[in-house]
From TrEMBL:
Residues making up the signal peptide according to the UniProt record: 1-19
InterPro entries in the record: Poly_export, Poly_export_N, SLBB_dom
Name recorded for this polypeptide: Polysaccharide export outer membrane protein
Family affiliation: Belongs to the BexD/CtrA/VexA family.
Keyword field contains Signal: yes
Positions of the Polysaccharide export protein N-terminal domain: 36-111
Subcellular location: Cell outer membrane
One Gene Ontology cellular component: pore complex
GO biological process per UniProt: monoatomic ion transport
Molecular function GO labels: polysaccharide transmembrane transporter activity; porin activity
Length: 204
C-alpha cells in the first residue's frame, strides 16, 4: 500500500511543483487562479518584501506569533491568513504618503512556509503533527505520516478545517485512486484536496 502511495505521489509531484513556483502577483493584481490552493500566510513564515527601485526597503521578514510584522514607513502589518498579493496591497497603501507620484510596485513572496502545520490521526503508521516546510496535498500528507495502516478506510477520510465561519469538514475518497494503474490525469490531480495550515486529517 505504501509503495503504491509513493508511486502516485511521484506521478503528481511535477505538476504540483510547477504550481508552487508561480511568481507573486503585483499589488494591483486580482487573486491568482490555479489548480493548487492559494497559500495563505501563517505565523512563523518567512516572507520577502521588495519595493521596486527602493533597495533600502527590500528585506526578509519572519511573521510574528501574533500574525503581524513591522515594515519601514508603514508600521505594523497584519499578515496572518492573507494571500501574498493582499499583503502587497496593504504595504502599497501604507507607502502612499511617502511618494508624490505613483507608489513603486511592491512584491511579496513566501520564502519559507515554516508556519505551515497540520495533524494526522487515526489509521496511519506515524500519526502526529507535521511541519513540511512546503505545500502538500492529502496524498503527500499521508506519505509524511508513513502511509495508511493495513485496515485504513481510505474512502472515509475527513479533513477538519478552521475557517472564519467556524469548523468545517471535508470528505475525501482515495480508495479508488490507489487502486488505479498508470498515469494520473489532471482531473484526478485536481480532485485530491490540498492541505491548509491548521488542518486535522482523520483516517478511520
Amino acid at each position: 500500500m505504501r509503495n503504491l502511495l509513493l508511486a502516485l505521489i511521484l506521478a503528481i509531484l511535477p505538476i504540483s511543483a510547477n504550481a508552487q513556483t508561480t511568481p507573486a502577483a503585483p499589488a494591483n493584481a486580482a487573486a491568482p487562479a490555479s489548480g493548487q490552493a492559494a497559500y495563505r500566510i501563517n505565523a512563523g513564515d518567512s516572507i520577502e518584501v521588495y519595493v521596486w527601485g527602493e533597495e533600502r526597503l527590500q528585506r526578509t521578514i519572519t511573521i510574528l506569533p501574533d500574525g503581524t510584522f513591522s515594515f519601514p514607513l508603514v508600521g505594523r502589518v497584519e499578515a496572518i491568513g492573507k494571500l501574498p498579493y493582499e499583503v502587497e496591497a496593504v504595504i502599497s497603501k501604507g507607502l502612499e504618503n511617502q511618494y508624490r507620484g505613483q507608489v513603486p510596485q511592491v512584491t511579496v513572496s513566501v520564502q519559507s512556509p515554516a508556519g505551515f502545520q497540520f495533524s494526522i490521526m487515526g489509521k496511519v503508521n506515524s500519526p502526529g503533527r507535521f511541519t513540511p516546510g512546503r505545500y502538500v496535498n492529502l496524498l503527500e500528507a499521508l506519505s509524511l505520516a508513513g502511509g495508511p495502516s493495513q485496515f485504513a478506510d481510505l474512502d472515509g477520510i475527513t479533513i477538519i478545517r478552521k475557517t472564519s465561519q467556524g469548523l468545517t469538514t471535508i470528505r475525501a475518497r482515495l480508495g479508488g485512486l490507489l487502486k488505479r494503474r498508470g498515469a494520473v490525469d489532471a482531473v484526478t490531480r485536481r480532485a485530491i484536496p490540498d492541505i491548509q495550515s491548521g488542518d486535522t486529517v482523520i483516517v478511520p
